[in-house]
Amino acid sequence: MHRIFQEAPGVFTRTFRTLGLPFDDPVAVSLLPTDLTENSPLERRVDTLLRFDTAEADSSFLLAVEAQGKKDLAKPASWAYYLAHLNAKYGVPAVLLVVCQDKNTAAWASAPVDIGPPQWPALTLRPLVLGPHNVPAVKDPVTAAGDIPLAAFSAITHGKDPDAGAILRALAAALKTVDEDTASIFIELTEQGLGTAPAAQIWRDLMAVDLSFFRSETAQRLRGEGRAEGRAEGRAEDIILLLTKRGILVPEVARDRITACTDLDTLGVWFDRAITATSAEELFAEE
Questions:
Q1: Which PANTHER family does the record match to this protein (predicted)?
Q2: Distance from C-alpha of 76 to C-alpha of 66, rounded to nearest angstrom
Q3: What is the pLDDT at residue 218?
């Protein structure tokens, strides 16, 4: 859920502008190291870390993005550490953005967390949260085509919603309006962002319809199967052609058996036999 901010960081300001938080549009965005580990055995890594430099010099800020799949009581302490560490390391204000796929997790992550004794909390953690409760559901293909990063982010955050199918169909249609390289990036980001959400299978089914746009593991497997089928068809045609050129009659039953075979090893054996066979039936003698 956080990787889309690496590919299209502008989606952050556009999304929050619709929510009434006027972050300035960046004039430059830098991808920073995500390793926040100190010289201690405990390793700490934020999911995605970006630096937003705006036209106003004093408006620059760091954006730490965390993808949160469920409630985790240990997280607020880690998030507070991230913000304090980033402020000390870079000397630039930091914003924590938590991205969720369900409303319960989003509600938990949105709650301010006081750190310190109740009579005098030393720090108050206030994450910004994006999820199905406040990210618009982009169901119109034209709207999706106008802002594909936002449409992809909408699909990811609404991955557990009943309307996820409509959002994914709009995104799928919109991706056909851009070049294949751009489409493949957001296809993969969407599939990764959906994770194990029910909508992930809907997305795979949609993308399998047009494999030229699909770059996921599923599509690569399907394309591999298609290439194997193509090689089998080609080898079957070679066997029939070889027998015909040698003047050997290929009955309909034998022709159907050869063309129906999809096992390349078997077809290889039949091809070798076709070089010396005196009849088509000799190809299948041992079978």
A1: SLL0800 PROTEIN, SLL6017 PROTEIN
A2: 11
A3: 52
The conformation of residue 35, written as its DSSP 8-state character, comes to: B
On whether the pTM is more than 0.85, the answer is no
Burial readout 159-188 (b: 16 or more C-beta within 10 A, e: otherwise): bbbeebbbbbbbbbbbbeeeeeeebbbbbb
Residues in the chain: 287
Place of tokens 């409630």: 71
Give Cβ neighbours of residue 206 (< 8 Å, ≥ 6 apart).
Answer: 168, 169, 172
Q: What is the mean pLDDT of each run of 10 residues along the chain (287 residues)?
A: 79 80 79 74 78 80 90 91 91 91 92 86 90 91 91 91 90 85 84 86 80 51 60 84 87 90 86 87 80
Number of Cβ within 10 Å of residue 71's Cβ equals 13
pLDDT number for residue 208: 75
Q: What is the spatial distance between Cα 158 and Cα 163, in angstroms, rounded to a whole number?
A: 8
What are the residue ranges spanned by the domains of the chain? 4-130, 141-215, 227-284
Q: Which two tokens stand for residue 171?
A: 């995104």
* 13 and 29 Cβ atoms separated by less than 8 Å: no
